[in-house]
Structure prediction request, 564 residues.
Amino acid sequence: MKEDLLEQLRAAVHRLVEGSGEGDPPAFALDVPRSADHGDFACNAAMVLTKRLRRPPREIAQQLIDTLGDAGGLVERAEIAGPGFVNLWLSKSRWQGVLDEILTAGEAYGRSDAGARRSVQVEFVSANPTGPLTLGHGRQAVLGDSIARLLDHQGFAVTREYYFNNGGRQMRVLGESVQARYLEQLGRAAPPPAEALADAEASWPEEVDGLPVRFPRDGYQGGYISEIAEGIRAEHGDGWADDADGSRFGKVAEETIFAEIRVTLDALQVTFDEYYNEKSLYEGGKLEAVVADLRERDLVYEADGATWLRSTAFGLDRDRVLIRSNGEPTYLLPDLAYHREKFRRGFEQFPYVKHAAGALGCPEDAIELVMNQFVTLTSNGEQVKQSTRRATYVTVDDLMADVGRDVFRFFMVQRKAEGHLDFDLDLAKDVDWKKNPAYYVQYAHARTHGIERKAAENGVAMPAPGGVDASPLQLPEEIELLQKLSQFPGVVARAAETREPHHVAYYLRDVAGQWNPYIQDGTRHRVLSDDPALSNARLGLALAVRIVLAAGLDLLGLSAPERM
RNA sequence: GGCCCAGUAGCUCAGUUGGAUAGAGCACUUGCCUCCGAAGCAAGGGGUCGCAGGUUCGAAUCCUGCCUGGGUCACCA
Prediction:
């Protein structure tokens, strides 16, 4: 609808500027005005053209209107307003036509082949298996999944990938943490003093009450570590007590934790096509190859026993360590190898959902970072730092147990990604989740089914696509509803392009915000009436609303219930 | 201190490729269930869009400076 009009306007503008000199006509906007008094659409072309045409905007506006005419039957009325806006009204029948367009397209309404099946990889969550998923991970999970759904909806061939790190220092510390708890449980080691644990700077005694303190300085303090140790004890008794290193413990811990992460993701209805293991990069000489290639380009040098990446050559602030002096690579090296592998696997674009950790100097435009800030927690009016290691966090499982998947997802996707998401723990307990916008939208959807059930009781069938005469839809609120529904394809396209699913969430709230009052005010416009033609048209409207709401909810990963 | 993000109603946030009178939810006040679903509807109060300049027909939106909050500046990831 809007595109058709825009095309007509472009043509009209083109005719106006003909012979006025060189260059393309300047860009102008066609917007849906806030106030209905300003038309179905408003165009600022006349004001934008003043400089070029050297005439007052209102004069140009009049000329534009004359040139545009009825724009091939689209425009019913045009007015000049304010400093030179051209306000345009489309005929009612145009808007009524939206109804059948939606019903005919059905589930496909709003879909697009803009992506042309190009392959896109969305990599997200990518939490290392060192503990349960926290709210921060949950936000990434929901955000990344919705972006993947949007891109798929817009015709891209999407691969969802979880890249995880189970090699290196982090996992070693994890294993040592479990081992220490295991030995503590067997009475062969002593836990570190509580006050030392609480203080990040404190030093630890070698032993307590004659027992060695085995828990590592930067160990993981969560209760789940002890549970894993108990599991090992239940299975192996004290058979692992004399292990010199923690690698066996680390393996068990990794497997246990990863299994739990997958259960959580499952509950969120977030799925992945691939779990890419950092360890696989250590094999087959991939890391060495990266270093060698970089060295060839003089981007690598040795200093202080470590191997450095000359990242200042890319204009970054400082150089980074690729391989530590103890021979262990930093995360950066496998990460570089990982991205190179991505290209080798043929992906063309990578919206790369990660924390705002900063790009690693990869110059390819194809790597996109969707940054999202941490979820901050407040309790008693104070900020609580989330830390897996120090076991100060709220898990996805905790919150989902309280509110369920749909509310969780809506809550997480409702705010744009780069903003902070502040989560008040105390408020969360008091909050009435039934007043959540997620329910509001789902309720609007369920009501379309309620009406269908009522119609069935009355022996009235739902209209079939292609067979709906929408002309009985004459009320302003009915036309406005159709206008709103007609915006869905544009909203989805923009959300996919900008990787901003929150636009969909707000749009759905708007649609529900028009539909719920419409249904409620049954005195003015009952869907089911004595007038068969009117009933049929309004049932068609209910179906159209249902199609759009269901499609939108699905893009956000929410269910579209038939009753609540 | 450098860089990044943010500052919009009491609270949480939309709106930012420049458009007309700045929006929503929550909270608060007042009404509404013999009526297609009250997880709802109607009405109401609530604002120096952090501050100050600048750009122009027009600025919450763009530019400059400043203030405030957060993040980040490791041989952690």
In short: The radius of gyration of chain A is 30 Å. Residues 353-364 of chain A have pLDDT under 50 and may be disordered. DSSP finds 20 helices and 17 strands in chain A. The first helix of chain A runs from residue 2 to 17.
